[in-house]
């Protein structure tokens, strides 16, 4: 029996965060330094296993990992499986990059402010939960990791429990998440009761268009879109992003990105063959357009820095939803070759872009709030004099989110405009208008907060650790800027092929 | 509508009643503790739904010790229900801790008073 | 205010705590034969803690150990799962081998505890973890809401966040 460590990497991508979460809280009882080192080790090991898994997927193709069987690759109907294909590789790479950057940032942030061992535990638990959500191939396992993620991220939002607002925001998000989880459980019960199997691959062969399946599809679509902060279920997003403690803010963004990944996996993998793809794609397009528009309109009137970026994040989710909706609507038709596949490429490229630059924007906003203790744009000003590095990082993120050439946001948005125009010209026009308004908002924020005469709000730059966290993300944005073609052909295309061919049995 | 068919669908009718009562409580009540109770009702409804899905006529409970015969109900749904109960305990504990914290900071647990986030 | 309850309640608690814990351990160990298992047994053991908190108003010297025990329980669980990595994770490498919990099952029998394999070990780990975690939750909640005697101030970290 040959022991191939590469085949086992999906479980390590899941087990290492969970193990190190509890090792951190155990070892930090001895000394604080040991706890910090354990946290960092856990993060880096997770990243290492994720990259190992992706390397194996890109060179050799995907596989299915069965838990508790004799061999890792066994076809078994009753065991829990993990699917490691191009889509899972794309998702876990995005999550790992952002988690490592946010983790290094939180290292510097938490040195003085609060007791940090529980923060690290909750951080690693959330990371393990999101990894489990995108990797799993079994419906009930999805529910388990969904709940783990929502519990851990809500506890993370309420971490600064000496402020009443954090706990209130966490309560609102938690009630929504728990009710959503129960509705997901209900629809999983519907599917299980009819077909008796919970595996994605087996279920996709059996799904048809009877009423109960359509009901399950609708419920799952709504709840995962709610988790991904798409309109009209986005009410929790400004409160949750705005009140989360510093380094946890990009992590809430990671959970919403993970839910979006899971939504696409479900729509293509489980329901793909049996449902009316044109209708569901049209629903996704409508949700996307609404999110784009409402997100950017609400961001115009905000003067709280973090809430503004939260509304912009809602509108970016709309871009992704719309692009993948166009791809889904044209699946299995001739138009897919023309523009559907291009739309999917744009959508997925936008997802990995957005994960990186949104985290960068949130981290620089958190730096500003942390250093000056001010949150409103009316009070901020002239920060570029004393905080040059933060200004540059924020500028990179702002240019990227506005979709201005040559930054990476422009590449993905160009793909989206070109393909969506062929589907329906009005959508491309709306996307362009939203992008222009985003540019205007980002310009206003940048000029207000960073340029202008020095008002003496801050006394210098933040610590090196926080800067290095943001620098990692900036480096990734620049890499995506310089090599967009490489990213699309290496990372995104395997993901699309894995999705549109259905799940590996 | 024979008696047998009504008896067979009675668990599902109970599930719908429990779920909608819980949903009504979460949506329309103002006291935070009542909202959490509504969530608990919904959890019970979902668990009952999962257990009642697994039943087949004439089969026994899947306990191996001194069983009557080996015609047993397949226990997959029971395992799912158990997991769901555990998750319910965890989320209820976290929600109740949030309510304790809110009472400490705001002084009341009425949702009309707990609304500082928009200022 | 006197935080303890009356003498009758305290005496009955003294009698009852041990059978409750033993019953909980029985549920944990027989998880693969009768309804029970890690979570159920752990919850029963945690109810003994609830009884102690209400009857006595404090937990004495043993409060700091809960989170350590919880972390140890979970690390044990994941370690036993990872031990089967020769085949896959969570592989039951003790079943039918004649080792600690190995043993074979034939037909319908009164049920021997020896046949569980890694299931029994994992039940134990989960039972330890759940009882410690639920006791920790109960202790922290009662500290906040004031049904427990306030402790002498030894550290000033304020109230700690409850985690799972």
Describe the structure.
The complex is a heterotrimer of chains A (505), B (119) and C (164). A two-stranded antiparallel sheet of chain A has the order 1-2. Chain A has helices spanning 9-27, 32-60, 86-109, 117-135, 139-157, 164-195, 200-206, 211-227, 236-243, 249-270, 277-300, 305-329, 334-372, 388-402, 408-423, 425-449, 464-482, 484-500; strands at 63-66, 81-84. Chain A has 505 residues and is an all-alpha fold. In chain B, helix 1 packs antiparallel against helix 2 and helix 2 (32-53) runs antiparallel to helix 3 (76-106). With 164 residues, chain C is mainly alpha-helical. Chain C has one domain. Chain C is 54% helix and 0% strand. In chain C, helix 1 (7-29) runs antiparallel to helix 2 (38-56) and helix 2 packs parallel to helix 4 (118-145). Chain C is elongated, with a radius of gyration of 19 Å. The model of chain C is unreliable at 155-164 (pLDDT under 50). The chains are: A mainly alpha (505), B mainly alpha (119), C mainly alpha (164). At the A-C interface, helix 1, helix 4 and helix 5 of A face helix 3 of C.
List the keywords.
heterotrimer; A: 505 residues; mainly alpha; two-stranded antiparallel sheet; 18 helices; globular; C: 164 residues; 4 helices; 54% helix; disordered C terminus
* Count of folded domains of chain C: 1
Task: Quote the beta fraction of chain B.
Answer: under 5%
Portion of residues within helices of chain C? 40-55%
What is the helical fraction of chain B, as a range of percent? 55-70%
Largest beta-sheet details of chain B? none
Largest β-sheet summary of chain C:
none
Number of strands of chain C: 0
Radius of gyration of chain B: 20 Å
Number of helices of chain B: 3
Tell me the Rg of chain C in angstroms.
19 Å
Cα end-to-end separation of chain C: 32 Å
Most extensive interface: pair and counts?
A-B, 35 and 32 residues
Find the structural class of chain B using helix and strand composition.
mainly alpha
Strand portion of chain C? under 5%
Fill in the CATH topology of chain B.
Helix Hairpins
Question: Which structural category do the helix and sheet elements of chain C fall into?
Answer: mainly alpha
Q: Could you spell the SSE succession of chain B in H and E letters?
A: HHH
């Amino acid at each position: 029996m040959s022991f191939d460590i590469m085949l086992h990497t999906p479980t390590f991508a899941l087990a290492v965060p969970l193990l190190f979460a509890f090792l951190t809280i155990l070892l930090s009882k001895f000394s604080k330094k040991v706890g910090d080192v354990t946290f960092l080790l856990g993060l880096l090991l997770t990243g290492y296993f994720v990259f190992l898994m992706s390397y194996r997927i890109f060179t050799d193709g995907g596989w299915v990992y069965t838990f508790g069987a004799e061999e890792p690759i066994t076809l078994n109907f009753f065991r829990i499986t993990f699917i490691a294909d191009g889509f899972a590789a794309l998702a876990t790479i995005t999550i790992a990059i952002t988690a490592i950057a946010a983790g290094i940032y939180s290292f510097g942030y938490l040195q003085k402010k609060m007791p940090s061992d529980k923060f690290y535990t909750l951080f690693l638990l959330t990371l393990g939960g999101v990894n489990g959500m995108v990797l799993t191939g079994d419906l009930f396992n999805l529910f388990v990791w969904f709940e783990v993620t929502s519990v851990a991220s809500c506890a993370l939002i309420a971490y600064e429990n000496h402020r009443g607002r954090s706990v209130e925001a966490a309560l609102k998000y938690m009630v929504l998440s728990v009710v959503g989880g129960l509705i997901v459980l209900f629809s999983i019960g519907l599917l299980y009761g009819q077909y008796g199997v919970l595996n994605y691959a087996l279920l996709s062969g059996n799904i048809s268009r009877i009423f109960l399946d359509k009901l399950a599809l609708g419920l799952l679509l709504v709840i995962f879109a709610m988790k991904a902060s798409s309109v009209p279920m986005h009410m929790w997003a400004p409160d949750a992003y705005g009140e989360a403690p510093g380094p946890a803010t990009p992590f809430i963004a990671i959970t919403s990105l993970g839910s979006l990944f899971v939504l696409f996996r479900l729509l293509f993998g489980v329901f793909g063959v049996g449902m009316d793809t044109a209708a569901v794609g049209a629903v996704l397009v409508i949700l996307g357009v609404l999110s784009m528009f409402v997100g950017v309109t609400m961001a115009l009137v905000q003067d709280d820095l973090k809430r503004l970026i939260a509304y912009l994040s809602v509108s970016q989710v709309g871009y992704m939803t719309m692009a993948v909706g166009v791809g889904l609507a044209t699946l299995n038709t001739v138009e897919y070759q023309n523009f559907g596949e291009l739309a999917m490429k744009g959508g997925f490229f936008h997802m990995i872009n957005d994960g990186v630059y949104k985290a960068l924007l949130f981290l620089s906003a958190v730096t500003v709030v942390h250093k000056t203790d001010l949150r409103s744009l009316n009070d901020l000003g002239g920060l570029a004099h004393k905080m040059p590095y933060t200004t540059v990082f924020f500028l990179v993120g702002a240019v990227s989110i506005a979709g201005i050439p040559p930054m990476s946001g422009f590449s993905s948005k160009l793909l989206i405009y070109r393909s969506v125009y062929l589907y329906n010209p009005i959508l491309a026009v709306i996307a362009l208008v939203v992008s222009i308004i985003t540019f205007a908002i980002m310009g206003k924020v940048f000029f207000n907060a960073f340029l202008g005469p020095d008002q003496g709000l801050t006394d210098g730059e933040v610590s090196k650790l926080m800067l290095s966290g943001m620098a990692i993300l900036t480096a990734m944005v620049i890499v995506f800027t310089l090599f967009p073609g490489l990213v699309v052909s290496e990372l995104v295309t395997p993901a699309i092929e894995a999705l549109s061919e259905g799940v590996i049995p | 509508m024979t008696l047998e068919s009504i008896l067979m669908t009675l668990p599902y009718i109970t599930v719908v009643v429990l779920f909608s009562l819980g949903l009504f409580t979460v949506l329309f009540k103002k006291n935070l503790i009542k909202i959490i109770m509504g969530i608990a009702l919904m959890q019970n409804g979902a668990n009952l739904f999962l257990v009642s899905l697994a039943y087949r006529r004439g089969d026994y409970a899947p306990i191996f010790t001194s069983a009557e015969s080996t015609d047993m109900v397949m226990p997959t749904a029971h395992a799912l229900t158990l997991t769901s109960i555990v998750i319910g305990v965890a989320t209820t504990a976290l929600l109740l801790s949030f309510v304790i914290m809110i009472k400490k900071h705001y002084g009341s647990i009425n949702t009309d008073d707990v609304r500082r986030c928009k200022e | 205010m006197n935080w303890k309850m009356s003498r009758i309640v305290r005496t009955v608690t003294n009698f009852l705590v041990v059978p409750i814990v033993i019953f909980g351990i029985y549920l944990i160990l027989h998880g693969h034969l009768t309804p029970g298992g890690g979570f159920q047994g752990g919850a029963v053991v945690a109810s003994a803690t609830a009884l102690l908190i209400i009857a006595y108003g404090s937990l004495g010297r043993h409060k700091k150990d809960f989170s350590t025990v919880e972390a140890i329980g979970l690390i044990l669980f994941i370690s036993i799962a990872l031990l089967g990595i020769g085949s896959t994770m969570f592989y039951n490498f003790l079943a039918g081998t004649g080792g600690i919990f190995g043993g074979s099952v034939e037909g319908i029998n009164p049920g021997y505890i020896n046949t569980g394999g890694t299931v029994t070990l994992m039940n134990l780990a989960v039972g330890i973890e759940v009882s410690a975690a639920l006791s920790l939750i109960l202790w922290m909640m009662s500290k906040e809401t004031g049904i427990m005697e306030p402790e002498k101030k030894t550290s000033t970290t304020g109230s700690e966040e409850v985690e799972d």
